[in-house]
Amino acid sequence: MGRVVVAVVWVLTLLLCLEYGIGDREILVSPAVVEASARRFIEDQEEELAKQCTRTMLAAWTYQTNLTTLHRSRLVSEQESFKRLQEDARQQANRWRAVDHLFSDQQVKRKIKVMSYLGLADLPSPSMISYQRVLSDMTHIYSSSNICSLQRPSRCGLTPHAGINEVLSTSRDPEELAHLWRAWRENTRAIRNSYAGFVTLANQAARTNNFDNKGDLNLVEYGGGAFREQLAEAWTQLEPLYRQLHAYVRRKLREVYGAHLVRERGPLPAHLLGDLWGQAWPLSYLLPYPDLPPVDVTYEMKRQGYTPRRIFEVADGFFASLGLSRVPSSFWRSSVLEDPKDTPLVCSASSWDFCDGRDFRVKQCTKVSQDDLVSAHHEMAHLQYFQQYSHLPYLYRRGPNPGFQEAIGLAVGLSVATPRYLRRVGLLGAGRGTSLASQLNTLMHLALRQLPFMPYARVLDQWRDGVLNGSIPREDWNCAWWDLRASVQGVKPPEVRTERDFDPGAKYQVAADLSYTRYFVAFVLQFQVYQALCMAAGEFEPRDNGTSLHQCDFYQSTKAGDALRSMMQLGASLPWEEALGVLTKGRETKLNAVAMREYYRPLEEWLTAQNERKGEFVGWRADGEYCLYKKPFRATNCDLI
C-alpha cells in the first residue's frame, strides 16, 4: 500500500507542477507515465480489496452458520477493515479522476470511476455517529415490533413473517384484518420521529459524494438520475395489464366482502389483499379455477427419495445441460444445504462468492419440496454467474447493476417451474399441467405475487425521492404516501389516516434505507433475460403465434447456454445496457417490460374477457378522503365572486 500512496502523490504533484509551474522552470510529464502509474495503483488496490473481501466473507459465513457472540465480533472487525480499505481506495481514485482525461485506455478510466464509488464517503464525525444511531433506532423499532390478534387476544408476538401475513391471507374477517393492519402501523409509526434526522444526514452524505440528494446517489449504479425515465416507461408498459388484474380482483373481493367495503369503482381496501403492505395479493380464491389443484411435485420428490443434496445435484445438472460449468468439488464439501439442527444459523437461502475465484457456496435450509427445488436452481444461477466472471479483475466481479444477479436467478426459475421441465427430469406425469385452466392458474398464481409489487415499488421509491429532494415536505409525508398509493396502485387504507401516522415506515426497507429499485429492475429484467434465452433455444419467436413464452423451457439448450455465458463472463466490465445488448444480440439495451407483458398475455386476454363480460369498470376513482392534511388553498372563480 505504501508504494501506491507514494506513486499517487508523486504523479499528482508533477501534474500540479505542469499546470501551475514552479518558478521559471518547465516540467513535462508524459500522459503515458500518468496512465502507467494509475494502472499500477488499480492493480495493487484490487489485490488488497480481494484479499480483504475474502476475509470478510469468511467471517460472515462463520457467523451466519454458527450464531455466536465471538463470531459476530470477528465479523464486525473484518467489515470495519473492509470499509476502511474501500474508503481509502475511493479517496485515491477520486484524485485520479481529476486527470483521467489523460488516459487512452478506457478500462483504466472505467476502473477508476468504479473505484471512486467504493465505500461511498462517510459523514464526518460526530455526524456519522448520529447517522448510524438514527438507522439503528429505526430498524430497532421495526424489528422489535409485534402485535396481538383481535379475536384471540392471547395470541401475541405476531410479526409480518411470523403470523400477520398468514392471517391476512387466510382470514375473511374484515375486523380482524383491519386490526392487524392498523396495529402494525401503530407499533412502527414512531419511526417518523427519527426519519427527519435520517433525511438530513443522508442528504449530507450524498452531497459529500457530489450528489444533490440521497435519491440521486441511490441510482448511481444504474447510470444516474436519467434512469428514472426507464423506470417510468417500464411501468407505463405494464399498467394496462395491472389495471385488468385490479378490476378482476376488486370484483372478487366485492363478492366476498360486499359493496359496502369494496366499492364498484373505488380503490382496493389495503387490509383485504392478503399481505400487510399490499405488495402481493396471495389469495387462493382469486385463481381462475380455485378448485383445480396446482402443479406440485413435492409428493413425487419424496416418493423418489430426494434429499437436499439431490435437489442441488439436479440444479447443477440444469446448468451442465446448457454447456456451462459444474460447481467445483469444494462446493459440496463447504456448503450448508440443510438445517444442521444442533447449530444456530441464519436459514434464509443465499449464495456466496468468497472473492478468490475458487470458493463458491450456498447456504439453504432445504426442504424436499417443489418450492425449494426452484429455489436451489435460483441460488445455483448466482453461483454460475460467480464462476463465469471469476477470471475478471476484482472490480468487475459482480453484475452490471444491482438487479442483474437476481434477474438471472428469476429467469432460470421461470424455466424450471414449467411442467415441461418437471416432466423432463422425471417428476411430473405426461399431460399434467398442460390444460388451459392449469396454465391460467399458474400464471395467476405468479401474477398475484409480481404485478401488485410493481406499482408498490414505484410508490415506495417515488415517495422516498420526493422526501429526499424536498418536494414532499415533512408535514405532508403520510398523506403524500396515500396520494401515491391511491393514484398509482389503486389501493386505499381501511380508515382515514393523518399526519400522526407514518405508514411508509411499516415497511422494513424504509426503516433500514434499502432501495426497492433493484427489485423492480430484477422483476422486469427477468423476463427480458428469459425471452432472450428462449429465443436462443428456438423455444419462442415473438411474431410466431405457435409459440408461447410462458411455456418455454430452455433446459438442454447449449445455444441458450452460449448466450447466457456471453453475458455472464462480462461481469461489470461494461455498462449494464451493453451487457443486456450482448445477451439479446442488440435487440434490447434498456429496461423494457414488453417481454413481461408477453409472458402474461394469455392471462391478460382472459382477464380482459372476464371484465368485459361482467361489465367491470377498469381503473379506479377516489371514493372518499384517505388522509387528513391541510392542502394549499387555490382560488377558483367561485371563490372570487
List the main descriptive attributes of the protein structure presented here:
mainly alpha, about 650 residues, two-stranded parallel ribbon, 6 strands, disordered C terminus, two-stranded antiparallel ribbon, globular, single chain, 26 helices
Q: Would you give an account of this structure?
A:
With 641 residues, the protein is mostly helical. 56% of the residues lie in helices and 2% in strands. The chain is built from 26 helices and six strands. The strands form three sheets. A two-stranded parallel sheet has the order 1-4. Strands 2-3 form a two-stranded antiparallel sheet. It has a two-stranded parallel ribbon with strand order 5-6. A hairpin with a 6-residue loop joins strand 2 (350-353) and strand 3. The protein is globular, with a radius of gyration of 27 Å. The N and C termini lie far apart (77 Å).
Strand residue percentage: under 5%
Our measurement of the CA-to-CA distance between the termini, rounded to an integer number of angstroms, reads 77 Å
As laid out across the biggest beta sheet, the strand order is: 1-4
Average residue pLDDT: 92
What profile does the largest beta sheet have? Answer: 2 strands, parallel
How many helical elements? 26
Total strands: the figure is 6
**Share in helix:** 55-70%
Question: What overall geometry do the principal axes of the alpha carbons give?
Answer: globular
Low-confidence stretches: 1-7, 16-24, 632-641
Judged by helices, strands and strand pairing, the structural class is mainly alpha
Rg (CA only): 27 Å
